[in-house]
Amino acid sequence: MRPRLLCMFVLFGAWWAMAIEVMLYPIITHYDFRGNDKYINSSIVVIGANPLNKSFILEFFVLRTIRDAKIVLTLSVRAFDGVGKTALFTRFVDGCEFIRRPNSDRLIKAFYEEITKHSRIKRCPYYPGDSIMINITPYSLAMPSIVPETDCFFDVKTFTNASTELIFETHWHSTMTRRENVRKVLSKAHNVKTR
To answer: Which of 94, 127, 143, 188 could serve as a FRET partner for 159 with CA atoms 20 to 30 Å apart?
Structure first.
């Protein structure tokens, strides 16, 4: 029994070491950002020229009371030789509840913890005059190798009033690449395109 246990332990260790090596990193190639002027005044600032160190700072200034925030997150990849998109997952999150209890969704929590290290996100409800600042550095958001090394699309839509009114939406297009292939992708002259 012990040799089997030792063998399983060694195989698991080897799998874990390989999983760490095949992390994928997003390099943003295009983004679109739109807020509802009825609820928020929104802006985005891009800091850094190097695609690996580029940060995107999203700022929201609340104009009207927001008591709930329902968020729809979708991760898609390019399919059929670029003809279409295939959604890998879609997640519906109660934003206010998630901020109160981040452990309620472990997958989203992994990204949330990395983003909140350098962001200012307060709890719901949001009142006129409140500000929210979200700092996103895509290269710090390594993805597991279950996401293919291809073009990737990440869409976020946030609603209020029982999911009837859009507060903001953003679309991010990126190239997912392994660490060793980053230089190849960057050599193709990546300029971030907006709108």
So the answer is: 143
Q: Looking at the domain assignment, is residue 163 inside a domain? A: yes
* Tokens of residue 6, six digits: 């030792």
The CATH number for 85's domain is 2.60.40
Q: Answer yes or no: is 59 within a domain.
A: yes
- Angle CA(92)–CA(95)–CA(97) in degrees, nearest 5? 105
Supply the pTM of this predicted model: 0.74
Tens of pLDDT, residue by residue over 59-96, are 999 999 999 999 999 988 887 766 778 888 888 999 98
> What b/e sequence results for 88-122 when a residue is b if at least 16 CB atoms lie within 10 Å of its CB, and e otherwise?
eeeeebbbbebbeeeeebeeeeeebeebeeeeeee
The secondary element (H helix, E strand) that includes residue 41 is strand 40-47
Q: Which residue in the block uniquely carries the two structure tokens 């997912």?
A: 176
Residues facing 134 on adjacent strands: 58
- Asked if residue 79 belongs to a domain, the reply is yes
